[in-house]
Write a structure and sequence with these properties.
Helix content is 38%, strand content 18%. The strands form two sheets. Strands 1-9-8-7-2-6-3 form a seven-stranded mixed beta sheet.
Length: 319
């Protein structure tokens, strides 16, 4: 039984075409310009104002309802315990999905839309890249070819960060990652100070991890999420987008002598494509099949993309 099949009567999701989903926008205003969308989207991602109108305004409205419900529950708990010392904690949105599927664009567009709600909430965005173990440690433990797999992250640091955020602590620090050097930047951090909403984006953020045999409480990253989104697409499409992005980067960012991948810009096009195919097959495809795709059904909302890299179907978990 495939519970993600729209025809499956036991599915926990409701399914909508992009056109159906767009109708739920209601009177949600478009607060972004075309130039801003161009700045927010990732390389080779065709998201434009029409896509924002079709998909993201309805999603913004849905998230607004969830945030309002969370705030109401907070006030009800204050009344229930007859206490004013209960700290209101940030609403955390997790965004998961494969490499090259468009997570970063979705995260950035949502951040801008949510921050422009009439209530002007404080919205921050963090990616899990900064929580990768430094390359020095990955090399020592023979994990460089497992970079991005669950074991390549500092899980303790991830849990401490999310626990601090969800506890309402001020000035919680997250490490910073450089895509230029392909490594964590030593001693550099970004500080998150009690936002109203935190968007937490990464390929494995819905990964449950191993369950303890003795019943002890072992938190997963998703335990801290109030809403989880999975960006989905057919495996063949993601493969195609990954190769296209790699070849585009070969002509742009990889040409920087300081780039970790600079050597690939010196190769012929055929040789570079062969490298990209190897990286996809030996690292990213394995990670997708073993760790990322199995978490899809844990999401509250699944945005499925078609061949044009635009969302064609939305699956929303039933209440």
């Amino acid at each position: 039984m495939d519970q993600l099949a729209p025809t499956e009567k036991y599915s926990p999701y409701r399914f909508f075409s992009a056109e159906q989903w767009s109708q739920f926008r209601a009177d949600t205003p478009l607060t972004l310009t075309g130039d801003e969308i161009a700045r927010l989207r990732s390389l080779n991602d065709p998201v434009d104002l029409e896509e924002v109108k079709r998909i993201y305004l309805s999603l913004s409205r849905l998230l607004s309802a969830h945030v309002e419900a969370s705030q109401l529950l907070y006030r009800q708990r204050q009344a229930f315990f007859n206490a004013q010392d209960i700290v209101k904690t940030p609403f955390i949105i997790g965004i998961a999905g494969s490499v090259a599927v468009g997570k970063s664009t979705t995260a950035r567009v949502l951040k801008e839309l949510l921050a422009r709600w009439p209530s002007s909430p404080k919205v921050d965005l963090i990616t899990t890249d900064g929580f990768l173990l430094p390359n020095e440690i990955l090399r020592r433990d023979n994990l460089m070819e497992r970079k991005g797999f669950p074991e390549s992250y500092d899980v303790g640091a991830l849990l401490r960060f999310l626990s601090g955020i969800k506890s309402g602590q001020p000035n919680v620090r997250a490490p910073v990652y450089s895509h230029l050097t392909y490594d964590v930047i030593p001693g550099e951090f970004v500080t998150i100070d009690r936002p109203d909403i935190l968007i937490f984006e990464g390929i494995n953020v819905l990964q449950p991890g191993k369950l303890p045999k003795d019943g002890k409480i072992v938190p997963f990253l998703s335990d801290f999420f109030d809403f989880a989104i999975y960006i989905d697409a057919d495996e063949k499409l993601i493969h195609q987008w990954y190769i296209q992005r790699f070849m585009r980067l070969r002509e742009t960012a990889f040409r920087n002598p300081d780039s970790f991948f600079h050597r690939y810009s010196q190769l012929s096009q055929d040789a570079a494509r062969a490298i990209a195919e190897g990286l996809w097959a030996n690292i990213n495809l394995k990670n997708l099949r073993e760790n990322i795709l199995p978490t899809r059904a844990r999401a509250d909302l699944i945005l499925r993309k078609g061949a044009n890299h635009l969302i064609e179907e939305v699956a929303l978990r039933k209440l």
